[in-house]
Design a protein that fits this description.
The longest helix is centred in the first third of the chain and has 19 residues. The model has no long low-confidence stretch (mean pLDDT 97). The protein is α+β, with helices and mostly antiparallel strands. The chain has two domains: 294 residues, Malate/L-lactate/L-sulpholactate dehydrogenase, NADPH binding domain (Ribosomal Protein S8, Chain: A, domain 1, 2-Layer Sandwich); 41 residues, Wheat Germ Agglutinin (Isolectin 2), domain 1 (2-Layer Sandwich), CATH 3.30.60.50. 46% of the residues are buried. The chain binds NADPH dihydro-nicotinamide-adenine-dinucleotide phosphate (NDP) and pyrrole-2-carboxylate.
Length: 340
């Protein structure tokens, strides 16, 4: 390994503060910088590399392009007993979620279920950080967000859908919440970019080239090609559902509806996000957290070694013990972007 790429270990707080500096320097408010820095550093800490510091140059080029409003103040609307709407003002989705969160939780706890519809928002991050905290306070949360056209619907000829992730979190009695977060494309766009950068081939079945022919070359996918949904018609149906819930239901753009061509450097999809939060204390029978624990127990008894989220939490523990490992070149780039 070259000295340039030797890992440097950084404390979580140090990484957050470096990222905050970058966001503020490139035009966000202090509040937005804090929210995005915590999100991105949390992804890096958990080994969610496709949405960790790898994304920072994309955030910066987007902010510099004027495509996103880094100082937007979200407007929260209490529209019904179980429904909250937020206009993110052309800013990021995470500050909009933060602004609406107290009202959303209050509604979920009183009605048993509540939905949050965010529109006019940009989501450029992993989705699990949006749902996991709800489960940590005993609630069940499901969220979907759409992105940018790069996925060919199953049976179609050209890309239309985004990579459209679905994230879910539920409490359990004995241990951290059960969390999964997955793109409905066969692979996240971020991972294709990382493979292209490393010169690695992709597994078969992830995407097609500009002629619609199957390819394992990430560059062919990025340069005029497209991704496929995971699981054929099944993933495609889920991706369609995400477009409906995250865009049609919220008032946001479908993945194919925005045009960023006048903003060179823009990378963040301008779409929408839906969050559904359920208070399981309203359900019948044994407490939900005991039932979810029983399910996990049976899965382990059936031979399962790895639950979704296990790898991330192991990475989190490693980062807490020895710091977040960044390669020296990536850290140097962050310092430069921070103006250090
Ligand atoms: P992965 O395929 O890596 O993982 C999907 C889920 O499956 C995770 O919860 C993961 O847990 C779990 N998992 C993976 N392998 C196993 C296994 N062998 N056994 C059990 N569980 C497993 O994620 P994707 O590539 O689909 O998505 C990556 C990220 O990209 C997500 O965070 C997603 O939100 C983000 N994304 C964001 C978009 C946006 O518009 N903002 C668009 C598309 C994607 P673990 O994490 O513990 O490995
Ligand atoms: O990795 O597919 C992706 C993605 C799209 C927008 C943010 N991440």
């Amino acid at each position: 390994m070259s000295a340039q790429n030797e890992p440097v270990h950084l404390a979580f707080d140090a990484l957050v503060s470096l990222l905050q500096q970058i966001f503020v320097r490139h035009g966000t408010s202090a509040e937005v910088a804090e929210t995005l820095a915590l999100n991105c550093a949390g992804a890096e800490r958990d080994g969610a590399h496709s949405h960790g510091v790898f994304r920072i140059p994309g955030y910066v080029s987007t902010l510099n392009s004027g495509w996103v409003n880094g100082r937007a103040v979200p407007v929260v609307d209490d529209v019904a007993s179980g429904f909250v709407r937020v206009d993110a003002g052309g800013g990021f989705a995470q500050p909009a979620l933060a602004a609406a969160r107290p009202l959303l939780v209050e509604k979920a706890r009183s009605a048993g279920i509540a939905a949050l519809a965010i529109h006019n928002s940009h989501h450029f991050a992993a989705l699990w950080p949006d749902v996991e905290p709800f489960a940590e306070e005993g609630l069940v949360a499901l969220s979907v967000v759409n992105s940018m056209t790069c996925v060919v619907p199953h049976g179609a000829d050209r890309p239309l859908f985004g990579t459209n992730p679905i994230a879910f979190a539920a409490p359990r009695a004995d241990g951290g919440p059960i969390v999964f977060d997955l793109a409905t494309s066969a692979i996240a766009h971020g991972d294709v970019q990382i493979a292209a950068r490393k010169g690695e081939k992709l597994p078969a079945g992830m995407g097609v080239d500009s002629l619609g022919q199957p390819t394992q070359d990430p560059k062919a996918i990025l340069e005029g090609g497209a991704l496929l949904p995971f699981g054929g018609h099944k993933g495609s149906a889920l991706s369609m559902m995400v477009e409906l819930l995250a865009a049609a239901l919220t008032g946001g753009n479908f993945s194919f509806e925005f045009d960023w061509s006048n903003h060179p450097g823009a990378k963040t999809p301008w779409t929408g996000q839906l969050m559904i939060v359920i208070d399981p204390s309203k359900s019948a029978g044994q407490p939900f957290a005991l039932r979810s624990q029983e399910l996990v127990r049976q899965m382990h008894a059936a031979g399962l070694r790895r639950l979704p989220g296990d790898r991330r939490h192991r990475e989190r523990e490693k980062s807490a013990a020895s710091g977040i490992a960044l390669d020296a070149a990536a850290l140097a780039q962050l310092r430069e972007l921070a103006g250090e």
